[in-house]
Amino acid sequence: MTYDCAIIGGGPAGLNAALVLGRARRSVALFDNSQPRNAVTHASHGFITRDGVTPAEFRRIAYEEVLGYPSVELLPWEVTEIHRNDHRFVVVTSTGKQIEARKLLITTGLREIFPDIPGLRDCYGTSLFSCPYCDGWELRDQPLIVVSENSGVFHMAKLLYTWSKDLVICTNGHAVLDNDQKQLLKSRNIEVVEQAVTMFIGHEGKLRQVEFADGTRIERTGGFITPEWKPKASFQGSLGYEVNEFGGIATNEWGKSSVPGVYAAGDAAYVMPSQLIFAAAGGSKAAIGINMELTEEDFV
């Protein structure tokens, strides 16, 4: 059997694409090895009708809806290789199983690379986060720290000032702020620390203190960390698609890549902003683009 579309990744982009294609009566192979990036998050926010939903509950509801369409098949395997065979894509998995599909949608998302700071992982997803739009409300009016090694920390500081006026900005040993930026932050009583963070101290995921390289500690109850983002999976070597400035797969407005038949959506394409609602919308648009292309081919 050759599927109309193989979707690589079962996050919000892949699931929403499978829903749209299933409703269009297209045969879909949905690959999902059940390792979502947001598994450590207690709740997802900013998605209307699902504000505060846990990632596990979101996936449960999504799969209940998606697999209600008989043409969508869940394949719980990791995809290790994809190559083109004539006018079909061959998808190979870690189990050795493989399928063929007319179209390919990559929705594998991102992986986060954090600074190697003791205690960070213990607090991440409970009191330390990466997205103010996702978790700023829950940390409102608390004493917060922002740790970032790039120049985007200045924008992050201004953004977070809406949620809390008690901010400490840490560049973790990197000189990424100019004097004008420091002065502006100082005028808002935002402290700037350029030392490296040596430890996050907390209990059961709840941050209490932050320790710096000189041994000093400050009291903080939460904060935001800027990770380095990398594609979770890359098939550029075998497929040859173009990438954008952020390392994601370059696409047009319908999710179509530079390679015929290859689409991408969600964090795998635009990288930022990394939000559930953006990813789901991107999956829907890509599915419509794929269905339109299949329709045109079927009427030749």
TrEMBL record:
Keywords, A to Z, come to: Flavoprotein, Oxidoreductase
Identify the residues that the record assigns to the FAD/NAD(P)-binding domain, covering every copy. Answer: 3-279
Pfam families reported for this sequence:
Pyr_redox_2
Q: Which GO terms describe its molecular function?
A: oxidoreductase activity
Question: So which domain of life are we looking at?
Answer: Bacteria
Q: SUPFAM superfamilies, from UniProt?
A: FAD/NAD(P)-binding domain (SSF51905)
Cofactor(s) recorded for this entry are: FAD
> Sorted alphabetically, which InterPro entries does this protein's record hold?
FAD/NAD-bd_sf, FAD/NAD-binding_dom, Ferredoxin-NADP_redctase_2
Quaternary structure, from the entry? Homodimer.
What PANTHER family does the database record attribute to this sequence? THIOREDOXIN REDUCTASE 1-RELATED-RELATED
Q: What is this protein called?
A: FAD/NAD(P)-binding domain-containing protein
Its source organism is Paenibacillus apis
